[in-house]
Amino acid sequence: MKRFLMIDLLNAYYWMDEALQVGLKERGWNDVTRSQSLILANITFGVRRASHLARNLGITRQAISQMLAEMERKGLLQSETDPADGRAQIVNFDDSSQSIRDDAMELLSNIETEVADRIGKKRFKALIEALQVDWGSTDFITGDR
Asked: C-alpha distances in angstroms, 8 versus 33, 38, 46, 113, 145?
């Protein structure tokens, strides 16, 4: 049976996220869900608009609004009206979330070290380099190159 890269990448993501979740729980952060991890990762990556977060996660704007409200109640995020577009919300980390962000960054670094140890430093470096290449647009799928 043919293996697909997308499935392998997804399995790798799930493994890494599970390790992150276990690490956060060990440090006392008991209530961060996988969806919330994805939101935090997107914000770290620079995605700040609620509508863009919803699109990236494949959920409705209503669903992202509920998730962001819950994360605000937990002190992870704060949102404000986008000065460039009064209809849009901009999401930022709440100052009180610095401790969990520090823990998550340390855990992610430890997870990457473990992956490098398991697959070998040379393979790990090649993997990182391959994933950081600009893959370009997806127009090839419709023939609109």
From this structure: 22, 18, 26, 19, 27
Two tokens, residue 35: 């969806």
CA-to-CA dists, residue 141 to 3, 57, 87, 136, angstroms: 20, 21, 33, 12
The number of domains in the chain is 1
If we measure between CA atoms, which residue out of 67, 66, 79, 72 comes closest to residue 96? 72
Quick: pLDDT tens for 71-96. 999 999 999 998 988 888 899 999 99
Classify residue 120 as left (phi > 0), alpha (psi -120 to 50) or beta: left
pTM of the model: 0.81
What confidence tens digit (pLDDT) does each residue in 43-67 have? 988 999 999 999 999 999 999 999 9
Q: Is 26 a domain residue?
A: yes
Q: Which domain holds residue 65?
A: 5-109
What's the confidence (pLDDT) of residue 142?
A: 86
User: What CATH code is carried by the domain that includes residue 36?
Assistant: 1.10.10.10
